[in-house]
Design goal:
The protein is of the alpha+beta class. It contains 5 helices and 5 strands. It has 2 domains: about 70 residues, no CATH class; about 60 residues, Nucleic acid-binding proteins (OB fold (Dihydrolipoamide Acetyltransferase, E2P)). A 5-stranded mixed beta barrel has the order 1-2-3-5-4. It is rod-shaped and about 85 Å long.
């Protein structure tokens, strides 16, 4: 009988995992993990089905209270934009639209960025290689390479 119970717990785990694909909140996934661990427990040990149910209940509570909040926190964490912006400083870019103190554009890592010169008296014609000094909002502040 223990093999049948283990197979039923395994089938339940698969169905819960498929249900999680539709929901995406990690709730059914935790229940699927609990059912899968109960299938293994049932297969290894020859206890009555009510012991399997208690094991499933305990595993479900443990996973829902311990693992699910960590997964949700990780899923909804905001990306570290500061690190990304800092990585752009010092990169080389090409001027795609003349840069003056009022307007300009560069191609930086394949993306177009609004750009202004570090020294507002300078102008950089199209095709000039420039280096990103820093990022100010969505504008790259650049200087000409020597």
């Amino acid at each position: 009988m223990e093999d049948v119970a283990a197979i039923l717990w395994f089938v339940g785990a698969v169905l819960l995992a498929v249900g999680e694909l539709l929901v995406g909140e990690f709730f059914l996934l935790m229940l699927a993990a609990a059912a899968l661990s109960t299938a293994g427990f049932s297969w290894i040990f020859d206890f009555p089905i009510w012991v399997d149910a208690v094991f499933f209940f305990v595993m479900s509570i443990a996973l829902l209270a311990g693992v699910r909040p960590l997964l949700l926190k990780r899923l909804h964490a905001k990306p570290a934009i500061e690190g990304t912006v800092k990585e752009l400083e010092g990169r080389t870019a090409v001027v795609t639209q003349e840069i003056t103190s009022e307007h300009g554009q560069i191609r930086l890592l394949g993306e177009l960025w609004t750009a202004r010169p570090l020294d507002i008296t300078e102008k950089y014609p199209e095709g000039t290689s420039v280096t990103v000094a820093h990022i100010d909002g969505s504008t790259a502040i650049v200087w000409r390479q020597l």
